[in-house]
Structures are given as C-alpha cells and as structure tokens.
Amino acid sequence: MPPETDNLKLEEIFRADQKERERVYDSPQALADLSRRDLERRREALELIGQGQVNTPNDLYRAAVLFQHGAEPKEFLLAHRLAVMAAVNGHRPSRWLAAASLDRLLMALGLPQVYGTQFERSPDEPRYQLRLPIDDATLLHFEKRFFDVQPVVERLAQLNRRVGT
C-alpha cells in the first residue's frame, strides 16, 4: 500500500485561512466577513474529514488550525483532537497547537487556560494582553517546553511587535 499523501484541497483551504491572518481587521464588518469565510472553510474541512480525506500529520494539523479559528467549544475540541493526533504522529508544530486548542476550549467553557497561549486585543487598546484567567499551578515543570509554548512575556513581545506597539 502506498504512503498517504497530503490532501491538496485541504492545503488550499489552509493557505487561504493563513493569508487572511496577515491583515489587520479593524472594523466589526471586516471581522464579521472573516468569521463568515472561516465558517465556510471549516465546513469544507469537515466535509473532507467525513469523506476520509484527512489522513496525514500535515492534513491533521491544517484541519486543526481551521477549527482553532472556530467559534464554539465543539470546534475547539475537534481542533485539539486533530492536533494531538498530528503531534503523536511526529508533527512538531502540532505540539503547540495541542496546547493552544486546549486553552481555547477551556476558556470557551468558562474555565482558566492552562498553558497561557491565548491573547487578545481590546478595541480601545492596541496592545495584546494575556486572556485571563490562567491556572498553571498543576503544570509539570517541563510541560510548556514539551509543547513548544513560549513564556508569556516573550509571546506578548512578539505579538506586539507584529502590530507595531
């Protein structure tokens, strides 16, 4: 049996998603339009998953990213499951995504994040800040390093450099 190959349609959907994240969305209408396009990309990815066409670690990662950009806990849970499967299969970037998707899921459920991967900008504040609350009291000493999660201070500086503040 030949090795699985990456799904080119999913790669195309993923690239469109990432291209959208290069620009700054500074109006409610622009954000609503982005949400609508994100929803359509998730629908397409779900169709590919349902057809059994998401199989490789790259496919799993790409689909996980799309669902990480979701709006509901069930989408964040799917992102987490996909990222974990990709990470278990040796896809290194999926390690961080597994941590980030868990944090996003927890916050969507009204619980504190664990890894400190979720940041936000308020409309009246140009700088990013950590989304609170965070509860990292139970983290193993090497856990953030294992998941390739940067220290909060470093990640904040990186995000704020990106937006020029």
Furnish the topology, listing elements before pairings:
Elements: H1 8-20, H2 28-50, H3 57-68, H4 73-88, H5 93-108, E1 119-120, E2 129-130, H6 143-146, H7 152-162
Antiparallel strand pairs: 1-2
Verbal overview:
It is built from seven helices and two strands. It is an all-alpha fold. It has one domain. The protein has a two-stranded antiparallel sheet with strand order 1-2. Helix 1 packs parallel to helix 3 and helix 4 runs antiparallel to helix 5. The model has no long low-confidence stretch (mean pLDDT 89).
The end-to-end distance, rounded to whole angstroms, is 53 Å
Integer tally of domains: 1
Please tell me what the overall shape is: globular
- Quaternary assembly: single chain
Report the biggest beta sheet as strand number plus sense, adding barrel if it closes. 2 strands, antiparallel
Q: What is the string of SSEs from the N terminus onward? A: HHHHHEEHH
Q: Report strand order across the widest sheet.
A: 1-2
Indicate the proportion of strand residues: under 5%
- What count of helical segments does DSSP give? 7
Query: What low-confidence regions span 5 or more consecutive residues with pLDDT below 50?
Result: none
Helix-strand makeup class: mainly alpha
Averaged pLDDT: 89
Radius of gyration over C-alpha positions, nearest whole angstrom: 16 Å
- The number of strands is 2
Summarize the amount of helix as a percent range: 55-70%
Could you give a quick summary of the protein structure above?
The chain is mostly helical. It is 58% helix and 2% strand.
